[in-house]
């Protein structure tokens, strides 16, 4: 009788699942499998995956295998119902099933600002990155851009195994010796949103957005004479690694960037033979590493010797979101300003002048003054929607910042008949801050100036003003302080693993001129954009130069060289400041500092890491061997032999110390390798710590010899006070020097729980 009841119960469950599955919507799922579990009756893993999907309950007509993976991880992406996905983990060999997430875009004077020169340094020592291949995962490419001309380049590197995927508007001839490969990935996106509308976006590698063309040309664009953005900027434009080759993988479409497509592109880039992967796409912060498909794919790329660089995100100080892409095997890049400004100053009727910034390129207002009004007195203070009355016609309108975009505010003013706009931003704007393009004469001023102008309008009902457009200013008088940490750049701490300091460093990401899509209206050959998206490819290009200079270096060694040689003082000699507050920035803002390409060419010492080290790191934060097996394949995993005492013991080029409750002492270990010209060299250590922390290093001197090129040291951090978990973070640094090289690591101190893996 009991058996009959159990059988009836099972039949009811199957009956329910059968019919409920028809009512469910379909979604994309990432399925991780154990490579070794493939039954011998199947010739390939692809055949096995098809069999697995066939065995699932109906509906059958909508089950769809989108991608299979071998490099980024072992497994596949399929379009399934929730019921079908829930059954998969019960099938032998299935390690994990996760619903697909989506990504989103993180939106040249910089070679000069970075100190790159044709006379000496990293450019000449790397032959401008000749034959290094940078894979760019983004919105595609506009191949006709002059930045991708291949004049003077040698043949396509023999190691390249990729192709140029054609489309109706993208013939194979679009690729050349510079743009050596181009592919698009759309299966996961179309499974989610339906077929691409060719009249709206191009179902090919062609970029109709601009973001991908911009980032690719920053990393490795060829030299273009007389490049410019209207008449604001005019001169020579060039990427960082001008002789490196570009392979483009289009993964982002009108709505978003589907996780399955991102993984497929990453898999393809590894298989094609790229040396550097550059990705300026956000996927959200706070994801566990084994729940972050991109972190998994990036680890597999690092296994193949490929450095992966990612943008840190654009959440800045406005939210509590922390940097994205915080896995220690990823080089995470924040954004900084440069010493260039696009000046557009406000002059009030009483003669006072307030500095502003603008990318407006049309007809200026001229010498005449116009009546000045406040939007809040004639509609909505934010200049939102159609809120302004016709009373603003013929006048300059002061709009408050926030909510709607700055460019939208200008359009609202123009539609209401205004002749100009002053935007009173709610954040500090400059000099050197992000500027916006506008449809009428407009400028943006900082909050202090905005308050003063607002008070002027209140006290002078018939007050007037004008806007004087001064165009591009380099250096400035007084000096434009640079770099500053961009206000939008995401800050630490690292919420996933507090013992790993993120971002790793900062690079130029404000008002960057680079190539653009010809599909823009009006068509633009070059455009100016800001974001950590722009900072990331700067570092990707520099990493390509280092790869060429030191082909035997591991991804971690290149990353270490970039981090330990980064600088922390601006062009006025002061500690790099935060753009929003003008206070000194901290390592949570700038990481190890601002990238310095020429110093990275000769770092002296490097902190090296391999895949086993990252496995040990994962063991130390509580990941089980089964969880790690989702992330690493073709390798035995035994936490008892590779595990670290703590995640802080990972041989990382920076330090993040977490004092847990009832603990006032933390010890971390590091290993450094001498890569300088002399084998016989002595390094001595210096430290800087807050009064509440003592730093003790043993040994305090490292003596290298031909027999001992790799040495270790131990650091003990002791909290001297009675700080609690609510104590504010504090910071210091550790620096090794032989009198010529300065190998510097920032240190962050926090009080809290530290890393706890999710169960």
UniProtKB/TrEMBL annotation:
<dbReference type="GO" id="GO:0006508">
    <property type="term" value="P:proteolysis"/>
</dbReference>
<dbReference type="InterPro" id="IPR015500">
    <property type="entry name" value="Peptidase_S8_subtilisin-rel"/>
</dbReference>
<dbReference type="InterPro" id="IPR034197">
    <property type="entry name" value="Peptidases_S8_3"/>
</dbReference>
<protein>
    <recommendedName>
        <fullName>Subtilisin-like protease</fullName>
    </recommendedName>
</protein>
<keyword id="KW-0645">Protease</keyword>
<feature type="domain" description="Subtilisin-like protease fibronectin type-III">
    <location>
        <begin position="649"/>
        <end position="748"/>
    </location>
</feature>
<dbReference type="Pfam" id="PF17766">
    <property type="entry name" value="fn3_6"/>
</dbReference>
<dbReference type="InterPro" id="IPR045051">
    <property type="entry name" value="SBT"/>
</dbReference>
<feature type="domain" description="Peptidase S8/S53">
    <location>
        <begin position="129"/>
        <end position="570"/>
    </location>
</feature>
<dbReference type="InterPro" id="IPR041469">
    <property type="entry name" value="Subtilisin-like_FN3"/>
</dbReference>
<dbReference type="GO" id="GO:0004252">
    <property type="term" value="F:serine-type endopeptidase activity"/>
</dbReference>
<feature type="active site" description="Charge relay system">
    <location>
        <position position="533"/>
    </location>
</feature>
<comment type="similarity">
    <text>Belongs to the peptidase S8 family.</text>
</comment>
<dbReference type="InterPro" id="IPR037045">
    <property type="entry name" value="S8pro/Inhibitor_I9_sf"/>
</dbReference>
<dbReference type="InterPro" id="IPR000209">
    <property type="entry name" value="Peptidase_S8/S53_dom"/>
</dbReference>
<dbReference type="GO" id="GO:0048731">
    <property type="term" value="P:system development"/>
</dbReference>
<dbReference type="GO" id="GO:0005576">
    <property type="term" value="C:extracellular region"/>
</dbReference>
<feature type="active site" description="Charge relay system">
    <location>
        <position position="211"/>
    </location>
</feature>
<dbReference type="Pfam" id="PF05922">
    <property type="entry name" value="Inhibitor_I9"/>
</dbReference>
<dbReference type="Pfam" id="PF02225">
    <property type="entry name" value="PA"/>
</dbReference>
<dbReference type="InterPro" id="IPR010259">
    <property type="entry name" value="S8pro/Inhibitor_I9"/>
</dbReference>
<keyword id="KW-0325">Glycoprotein</keyword>
<keyword id="KW-0732">Signal</keyword>
<keyword id="KW-0720">Serine protease</keyword>
<keyword id="KW-0378">Hydrolase</keyword>
<dbReference type="InterPro" id="IPR023828">
    <property type="entry name" value="Peptidase_S8_Ser-AS"/>
</dbReference>
<dbReference type="InterPro" id="IPR003137">
    <property type="entry name" value="PA_domain"/>
</dbReference>
<feature type="active site" description="Charge relay system">
    <location>
        <position position="138"/>
    </location>
</feature>
<feature type="signal peptide">
    <location>
        <begin position="1"/>
        <end position="25"/>
    </location>
</feature>
<dbReference type="Pfam" id="PF00082">
    <property type="entry name" value="Peptidase_S8"/>
</dbReference>
<dbReference type="InterPro" id="IPR046450">
    <property type="entry name" value="PA_dom_sf"/>
</dbReference>
<keyword id="KW-0964">Secreted</keyword>
<feature type="domain" description="Inhibitor I9">
    <location>
        <begin position="28"/>
        <end position="106"/>
    </location>
</feature>
<feature type="domain" description="PA">
    <location>
        <begin position="370"/>
        <end position="453"/>
    </location>
</feature>
<dbReference type="InterPro" id="IPR036852">
    <property type="entry name" value="Peptidase_S8/S53_dom_sf"/>
</dbReference>
């Amino acid at each position: 009788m009991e058996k009959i009841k159990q059988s009836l119960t099972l039949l009811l469950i199957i009956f329910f699942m059968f019919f409920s599955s028809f009512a469910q919507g379909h979604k994309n799922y990432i399925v991780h499998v154990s490579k070794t579990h493939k039954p011998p009756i199947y010739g390939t893993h692809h055949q096995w995956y098809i069999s697995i999907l066939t065995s699932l309950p109906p509906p059958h007509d909508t089950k769809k295998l989108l991608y299979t993976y071998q490099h980024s991880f072992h497994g596949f992406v399929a379009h399934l119902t929730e019921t079908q996905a829930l059954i998969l983990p019960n099938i032998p060999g299935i390690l994990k099933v996760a619903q697909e997430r989506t990504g989103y875009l993180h939106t040249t004077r910089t070679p000069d600002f970075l100190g790159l020169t044709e006379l000496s340094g990293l450019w000449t020592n790397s032959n401008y990155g000749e034959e290094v291949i940078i894979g760019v995962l983004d919105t595609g490419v506009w191949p006709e851009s002059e930045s991708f001309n291949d004049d003077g380049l040698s043949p396509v590197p023999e190691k390249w195994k990729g192709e140029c995927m054609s489309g109706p508007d993208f013939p194979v001839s679009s690729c050349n010796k510079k743009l050596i490969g181009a592919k698009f990935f759309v299966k996961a996106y179309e499974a989610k949103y339906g077929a691409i509308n060719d009249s709206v976006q191009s179902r090919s590698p062609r970029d109709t957005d601009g973001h991908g063309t911009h980032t690719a040309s920053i990393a490795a664009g060829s030299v273009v004479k007389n490049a410019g953005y209207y008449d604001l900027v005019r001169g020579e434009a060039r990427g960082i690694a001008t002789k490196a080759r570009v392979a483009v993988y289009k993964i982002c479409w009108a709505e978003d960037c589907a996780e399955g497509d991102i993984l497929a592109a990453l898999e393809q880039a590894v298989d094609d033979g790229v040396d550097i992967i550059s990705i300026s796409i956000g996927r959200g912060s706070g994801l566990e590493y084994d729940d972050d498909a991109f972190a998994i794919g990036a680890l597999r790329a690092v296994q193949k010797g490929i450095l992966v660089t990612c943008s840190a995100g654009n959440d800045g100080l406005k939210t509590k979101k922390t940097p994205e892409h915080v896995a220690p095997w990823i080089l995470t890049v924040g954004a900084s300003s440069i010493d260039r400004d696009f000046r557009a100053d406000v002059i009030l009727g009483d003669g006072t002048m307030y500095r502003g910034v603008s990318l407006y390129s049309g007809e200026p207002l001229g010498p005449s003054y116009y009546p000045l009004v406040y939007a809040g007195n004639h509609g909505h203070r934010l200049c939102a929607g159609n809120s302004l009355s016709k009373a603003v016609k013929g006048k300059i309108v002061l709009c408050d910042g926030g909510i709607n975009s700055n460019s939208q505010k200008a359009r609202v003013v123009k539609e209401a008949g205004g002749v100009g706009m002053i935007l009173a931003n709610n954040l500090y704007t400059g000099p050197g801050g992000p500027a916006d393009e506008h449809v009428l004469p407009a400028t943006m001023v900082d909050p202090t100036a905005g308050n003063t102008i607002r008070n002027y309008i209140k006290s002078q009902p018939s007050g007037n003003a004008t806007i004087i457009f001064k165009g591009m200013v380099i250096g400035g008088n007084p000096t434009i302080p640079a770099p500053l940490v961009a206000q939008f750049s995401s800050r630490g701490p690292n919420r996933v693993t507090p013992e790993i300091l993120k971002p790793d460093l900062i690079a130029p990401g404000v008002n960057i001129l680079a190539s653009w899509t010809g599909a823009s209206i009006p068509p633009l050959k070059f455009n100016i954009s800001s974001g950590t998206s722009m900072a990331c490819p700067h570092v990707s290009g520099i990493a390509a130069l280092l790869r060429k200079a030191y082909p035997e270096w591991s991804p971690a060694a290149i990353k270490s060289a970039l981090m330990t040689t980064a600088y922390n003082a601006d062009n006025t000699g002061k500690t790099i400041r935060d753009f929003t507050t003008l206070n000194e920035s901290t390592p949570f803002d700038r990481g190890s500092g601002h990238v310095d390409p020429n110093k990275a060419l000769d770092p002296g010492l490097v902190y090296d890491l391999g895949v086993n080290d990252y496995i040990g790191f994962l063991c130390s934060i509580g990941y089980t061997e089964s969880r790690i097996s989702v992330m690493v394949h073709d390798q035995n995993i035994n936490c008892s032999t590779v595990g670290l005492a703590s995640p802080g013991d990972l041989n990382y080029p920076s330090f993040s110390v977490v004092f847990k409750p009832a603990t006032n002492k933390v010890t971390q270990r590091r290993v450094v390798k001498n890569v300088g010209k002399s084998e016989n060299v002595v390094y001595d250590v210096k430290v800087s710590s807050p009064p509440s922390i003592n730093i003790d290093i043993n040994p305090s001197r490292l003596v290298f010899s031909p027999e001992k090129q790799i040495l270790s040291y131990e650091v003990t951090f002791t909290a001297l006070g009675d700080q609690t978990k609510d104590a504010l973070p504090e910071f210091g640094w550790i620096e090794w020097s032989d009198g010529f090289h300065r190998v510097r690591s920032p240190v962050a101190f926090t009080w809290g729980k530290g890393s706890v893996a999710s169960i």
